[in-house]
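Aim 2 progress update. The chain analyzed this quarter is reproduced below.
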Amino acid sequence: MKNLFLAASYIFLVFFLVACGSPIYTDGYASQKKQGDALTLGLDREDFEKTAQKMIESMLKDPAFANISQGQRKVIAIGKIINDTPQRIDTNKLISKITIALRKSGKFILTTAVAAGGAQDDMSEAVRELRNNEEFNQNTISKKGTLVAPDFSLSGKIRQDTVKLKNGDIQAEYFFHLTLTDLNSGLAYWEDEKTIDKTGTSKSVTW
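Predicted structure tokens:
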């Protein structure tokens, strides 16, 4: 009886998947030119990795940063990254890959002491609260004026539009927009936007 139930469940699953069809990447235009198979109509790890790589290449090739030497590394703080999609997204999937690559480039370094919404690592502040605590060797406590303020803030937004096509399929359009702002002048030294377009049947879901 149990085997019969499992077989029926498997057949139902197969028919369900066939009915739903597999989502695909497209060029996002009326031509609906296929760009490859997609794992899901929603955002997955591959989307974040590819987008992060494109953003990194764009930033490092930008004339504003192309000539930064190893000894002139700029300090970046993470600003607001807005998730303007109906999906529950951990924006760190995108940002962490970018900050890791930027640090490895030798041109940038990330501060965890300052970030939008609070420090990424509050230990920089916590260790300073140990001043005048007799249980600690005060010579090992960070001195005043030793924290380094950021030069730039990396902020952005992930937006999603959903479009119903003539044939009834659904096109999910994702827009990744990032900006690098000079905190001294408030000027955006770099910004870019990358898009991902996926198409699936009307039964496909993005979450």
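Residues 62 and 190 are 7 Å apart (CA to CA). The longest helix spans residues 2-20. These observations will guide the mutagenesis experiments scheduled for the next reporting period.
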